[in-house]
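[audit] Reproducing an earlier prediction to check determinism. Same input, same settings, fresh worker. If the tokens differ from the archived copy the diff job will pick it up downstream; this log only records the rerun itself.
[audit] input (254 residues):
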Amino acid sequence: MARFLTVVIPTCNEEKNIANMAKAIREQYPAFHVLFMDDNSTDSSKKLIEDLHDPMVTFFTRDPHDRGLAASVLQGFVECGTDYFICMDCDFQHPISALGPMYEELEKGADLVVGTRVERRALGFIRWAGSWAFNVYCDLFLFVNHKPITEDIMSGLFGGRRMLWAPIITKHWNEMELTGWKVLLDMLKFGPSKVDIHKVYYRFGHRAEGESHIGPKVVITSFHQCGPLGKFLARVIAGLKDINYEQMYPEKEL
């Protein structure tokens, strides 16, 4: 029997993309719910979604004191209420055509399905090299800690079974990198050692409208997720980029 799925999309000031994204998903997948987890946008994003009058599309305004892309995504996984969830960006860089194959893998029994990028050099050499190096580092970190690894740990396109992942997220909420970007890394870090992971390959597209939120803090928060050595490297990178690490992480770390 087919089960229900929610596409969870974190947003912040995505008025140039949000309505088109909602309509594109609903047209191609009429049975899928769409949940925009909004990090307190100041533009017209909310009104654009409300004007669609689509009961399968929800705009969720989060607590302004609990901001962060990862927090938005993880809260969406817990609150979506459907059997499955899939996370994707709102800028059309993740192809909507990948949602169907990912849903099929979940129906086959996958605990986690990861959208895995091909031809990653299209990102640009520097970004590709950085992504590759960090992927290797994360694989080593997860392997040493007896956790499962996946081919594209940096992917922002992935899905899972809510009944498995919601209790894990709730239990480890305060330990997760809620202001970071690499949600998949934290899920594998805090999840069980044995997870049935499937892959769906896709080509990373170009952002349709608006500006990317990628910057040096993405690298810092990502390393910060990876144990004591990762925290040390995060401090080093913050120093090189002249970013106040103590302001990002005000609590003293031993």
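[audit] rerun output stored. Observation attached for the diff report: Strands lie at 5-11, 33-38, 57-61, 84-87, 112-118, 158-161, 197-203.
[audit] end
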